[in-house]
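Memo to structure team: turn this sequence into structure tokens by end of day. - J.P.
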Amino acid sequence: MRLRGSGRDWMRARFMGLIAFLCSGLGLVVFQAYRIQILHGDKLRAEIQRIYQREVTVVPARGSVYDRNGEDLAISIPVDSVYARPGRIEDPVGTAKRLSAILELDYETILRKLKQDAPFVWLKRQVVPLVGSRVRSLGLPGIGVVQETRRFYPNLELASHLLGFVGVDGQGLEGIEFQYDGLLKGETSRLIVDHDALGRPLGAAEGVVVARRDGRNLVLTIHKEIQYIAEQRLLEGVEAAKAKGGMAIVMDPKTGEILAMANVPRFNPNTYKQYPEGILKNRCITDSYEPGSAFKPFIVAGAIEEKAFRPSDPIYCESGAYRIHDKVIRDVHRYGTLPLSGVIQKSSNIGAAKIGLSMGAEKVYSYIWRFGFGRPTGVDLPGEASGLLRPPKWAPIELATISFGQGVSVTALQLATAFSALANGGRVMRPYVVKEILDAQGNTVERRTPQQVGQAISPTTAAEVTQMLVSVVSSEGTGSQAAVEGFKVAGKTGTAQKPDLRNGGYLKGKYVASFVGFAPANDPRLCVLVAVDEPQGNIYGGQVAAPIFREILKDAMGILGIYPEERLLAQGKNGSVRGGAL
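Reply from structure team:
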């Protein structure tokens, strides 16, 4: 009986031991499950995603860019992009052969990509819809098509230097596209691809596209029609002069709004890779040049502001040759005595040099700086140069040459902004190109307003200098070819020899011919700058650039409904409304 009882106790002990073992195992499983799913769940899930998922960037819908009247300048259109998942491809050779003709890619290139040890590879980005549809219809294992967006510029070359362009991954590379890339691109979306440790797909899905946020839209200050006119007239003028290139800017002098910014040669941003890198620069803001005689009005403005001269004060111009130590300054014509206003009208280098020398380096520097030279204008575009304005420790000959626009360099935008200040009662406005920022639904997020950044001279001095600039465009002035019938135009010619940056001195036979001015002189609405680089034959700004200025100004006035003054007087008698709105 004891043996029998002992046997039952032993069996009971074994059973209880088994139960305890199972409970311990179950407890361990529960503990491990708790540790894995609760204590370390987030970390392990992230690690699994890192190992078994791949993220591929998919370009979101980039915001549009419009002109001031809502006309399209840059838009995004849906396109297809073709990709491969090498681990799923059953017949790489056959697949490469079938895709080669459709994608217009070399067979070897495709085959090399299909044999890569990678879970995901792009075969061709941003193809036309027909190509994407043909690839889908093949139903090839491991080949997929995902929709992206592509930047498109419907006006081709129009405003290309100002707009810039976008790379294949949706990043802005130049111009507005670069400057406002963070706003335009929105939030980048992702294509999630699952795979095992060997790169083979998990499940039948080709991938999951994570939701994206489209970019903001921009409304520019640019007027599309005026931009077109500026580019066409500049192109015609550059070709007629057999010049290397040219620049043109149209601004509202009262607000600083840029209505047009043109460069020649032009390029098509839809195919920007086909052009040399030098052509892609916006030379209106990136390149500096010596302004020549177009610089004289600012020296004269400083002299009048300082009450050192009055417009009628006589200046002896040495009959065309003026010696300073071992250097001789010359005028194109041999002038005797000219009034201060005549120095501007006739564009006397000697007269300007004498004015600068009488003021002194510190004063001359002060007024040059007040007008915005030697520093960026602050325009909302990338790559703006500062020009060259050295500290005023100038020898007399340096002060003299700077006074007529040599030994100092400016950008086209700096010069246009400074002339706008003359037109605007001495008020220096910050130039800008983005007028409004909109969300994807078209609601206004931010509206830009004009910003005054300085007061260069008094309104009285600005008015006196303006009258001198009006005389430049008269029949007796150097800029007579800039005259527009019915309008009083104020402006200044410039003809500057190009410096030799390698050897010093100046390049023989290479000039920049320019004209910059504004109208109507009594109530300026537009400021226009034209600069022609290396014209052949005739080199003078009054003969090369002034006619281009005239055509741009005349056409722009018509587009804006700004009528000749005689016509306005006649309309006023009939109760008509003056002018037109920008």
